[in-house]
Amino acid sequence: MTLTPSHIIEHLFCPRFTYFEYVLAIPQYEEKNYKVMRGRNLHDERLERNKDYLRKRVGRPGAPVTEKHTDQYLTNELMRGVVDEVLGFGDGTMAPLDYKFAEYKDKVYETYRTQLYCYAWLIEVNFGRLVDRGFLVYTRSNNRVVEVPITEEDKLDVKQAAEAIFTIIDRNFYPKATKAKARCVTCTYRNICIK
Q: What's the Cα-to-Cα distance from 7 to each of 17, 80, 141, rounded to whole Å?
């Protein structure tokens, strides 16, 4: 088994998500969620429309975008994922770019950041090049592009989360719930979780 960025995001939301879904095998039925399904369809539509478009505005001074790889399926020893676009720059660095079926409201949600951190880890392993930023395209805000810095600590955090997920699964370990109790209100497992 390898993980996806969604596994990491769910685990960071609450470690018990991992236990209910992957130890007890209780599905969460996310396919009923309109935004999830619309986002997946949008991903396919964007890839068809923008295959040859090279983003020139996201490059650094002296390090423009020099290459683009679309719909990249990447793996490492713990994780797999499909990155909408992997951009390469003149300074040798790379960056993930991900489309979101969302409006930009002057804030980048932690779930979006975590997804970019996961992609950064995958890109570094597969391309052997530094990733220190990523980009989000908010399709419901006239395709606004937002840059997100990515540190070494960000990439280490997702690696450690991936290792924690395998510990829960391999040892059949029932973890503590999140301390952020407000998350329990919308959790799909709230009716079966022991507080």
A: 9, 10, 27
Q: CATH classification of 5-186, choosing from 3.30.830.10, 3.40.50.11540, 3.90.320.10, 2.50.20.10?
A: 3.90.320.10
Q: Are 89 and 60 in contact (CB under 8 A)?
A: yes
Q: What is the pTM of this model?
A: 0.85
Instruction: Write the DSSP symbol of residue 177.
Output: P
For residue range 37-68, list pLDDT tens digits in order: 566 666 666 655 565 565 777 878 889 999 99
Please report, for the chain, the start and end positions of each structural domain, with discontinuous segments joined by +: 5-186
Half-sphere CA count of 64, side-chain side, radius 13 A = 5
